[in-house]
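Lecture notes, continued. The same structure-token format from the folding unit now serves as the input rather than the output. Read the line below as a description of shape only.
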């Protein structure tokens, strides 16, 4: 938003302190984190050893054949991907995005690069993980929808914010919650209200962070139950 101003002027007029370490953010394009924390963040690439289904980090190298992590075998999506691990700059960016409805250039670039690494079907819809009406009104925006819009515009794909809905307001997930607790909070809370629009369509399901995978798995289950084809998940960050 302030990219047109010199960074030195931005730091004086609108000082931003790093959400990870507390130091001054010197470049507006870095958003909520300083350049040192961006450098300390672990990003994924084609050489990173990830679970082929849920995308959780397994090892630094893909020199050996990797199997599934074993914790996502019953998940309903086809595969999940993220820009990197939820720590340092990515953690600060996710938390900042929940409060401020802007996507800095560095976050946008991370999303676009992540999309290019995915083997996506030739034709797909982009759908964000929805908020409940209550939380949407409280926050004023859906951060997942903002990320999804960024991806859809860059890829020239259709964005659908209305077909997948969250009918029940659930407690916010905390990092410390175990898998069973997360699954219990999202069971039977999602619904599809316009099934004809997703019938036989492949879906790129977008959210800000993936932890246990319970939320996106439930979304994928409902989408497929209503006729969707493959459901591929993309998030800005992936919890370890």
């Amino acid at each position: 938003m302030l990219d047109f101003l010199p960074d030195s002027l931005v730091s004086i007029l609108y000082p931003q302190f790093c959400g990870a370490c507390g130091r001054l953010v010197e470049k507006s394009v870095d958003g909520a984190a300083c350049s040192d924390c961006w450098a300390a963040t672990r990003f994924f690439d084609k050489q990173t050893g990830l679970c082929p289904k849920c995308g959780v980090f397994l090892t630094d190298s893909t020199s050996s054949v990797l199997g599934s992590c074993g914790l996502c075998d019953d998940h309903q999506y086809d595969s999940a991907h993220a820009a990197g691990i939820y720590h340092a700059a990515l953690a600060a960016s996710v938390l900042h995005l929940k409060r401020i409805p802007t996507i800095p250039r560095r976050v946008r670039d991370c999303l676009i690069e992540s999309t290019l690494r995915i083997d996506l079907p030739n034709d797909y819809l982009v759908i964000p993980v929805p908020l409940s009406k209550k939380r949407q009104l409280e926050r004023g925006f859906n951060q997942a929808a903002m990320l999804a819009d960024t991806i859809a515009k860059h890829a020239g794909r259709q964005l659908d914010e209305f077909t997948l809905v969250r009918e029940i307001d659930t407690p916010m997930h905390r990092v410390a919650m175990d898998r069973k607790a997360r699954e219990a909070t999202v069971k039977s809370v999602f619904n599809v209200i316009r099934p004809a629009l997703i019938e036989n369509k492949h879906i790129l399901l977008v959210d800000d962070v993936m932890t246990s995978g319970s939320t996106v798995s439930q979304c994928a289950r409902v989408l497929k139950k209503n006729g969707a084809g493959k459901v591929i998940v993309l998030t800005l960050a992936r919890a370890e």
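Point for the exam: The CA atoms of residues 171 and 185 lie 7 Å apart.
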